[in-house]
What we know:
The chain is mostly helical. The protein contains 10 helices and no strands.
Amino acid sequence: MSRRAFHRASEAERRQDLISATLDCITELGVQGATVRQIATRAGVTGGLIRHYFDGKDQMVQAAYRDTMMGMTRTAIEAAESLDADARTRLGRFIVANLTPPVTDPRTLSLWAGFIGHVRLDPTFGAIHRENYAVFREALERLVSDCLREAGRAPTAAECRAHSIAINGLIDGLWIEGSLAADMFDDRELAETALRAVEAMLGLPPGGLGATPTMQEG
């Protein structure tokens, strides 16, 4: 009979477990309702251990907000990072990833709604928002620039910036609708809508962003 190997969680793993427990408690109770004691109970640790990683609840909630937002952005960027795909396909994958699970998800929307009211009131929340927005926009600008150059055009930095701002706004609006009322749309409807709108915005032919693996499934 083999004995199961003992695994001692690393500092990073323990911290991530606490962030996950914080997110679970916020989902169930809201930001105000979640307490350090409840988070400790959910994570199966003592309040003293929590204080080893975080100064208090505010810092835990801030870390949970960063984890949520950066996780969504990372998912979309990873979907677009493929060395064997052309620029149009990478942009298409980025858009689709933002408008399909796991990014489009009722739980994530609930978390975002609980966090967003703090952005203008809490400087740390505001900084996290700007940090994530910058990462997202920079990735989108690169994808737009590569796509237009691949189409034989020479876009300026200002043009790519303007397009990325508009595309980000389009994605945000459809993401909220898709997370809030997914049953009102077909599985691929919002992603298809976004792809066609971005093609028109960039002056690409219909279907110019190419078929992505996500869109081909089913």
